[in-house]
Amino acid sequence: MEKIINKLIENNKTISTMESCTGGCLVNEITNIHNSSKVLKFSAITYSNEFKEKMGVSNNTIDNYGVYSIETAKEMSKVISNYANSDYGIGITGTLNDIDPENITTNDNLVYISIYSKDTNNYYTKVLVVNKDTRQNQKYQVITEVKKILLNLLQIN
User: Fold this and answer.
1) The pLDDT of residue 99 is above 90
2) Contacts by residues 56-61 (CB-CB < 8 Å, ≥ 24 positions apart)
3) Model's pTM, two decimal places?
């Protein structure tokens, strides 16, 4: 994460996050790095559909594709980027060994990741099968994947 933060600083770029199933684990990893305040504009933990919608995710997207979908993750990433006026927005949604009675799905242990680039208006996405034994380890598995995408996107070796 330190390489990512330093590259964002070097490129004068900013980042924002909207996390659901990871519950702030990503923003915690970001803020653990010295000088992260130079790049982190905003972070939201939107654990419920209600607050995803209050932040700007369309209820039509959630109704049509499900809250656990790449479409919702993409919308989360763009919404947070626009809300915070940041160069990159990250959206994460999915399930971690948990049945959500409000959002029944047949795809347990799938996490949907989207990174939106405002400069290019492109999305960088990944659907990840989480296979770790605890929720904490599953969250770190997701964050590791986010870091891989960012390292590639920012062209960091």
Assistant:
1) no
2) 56/82, 56/83
3) 0.93
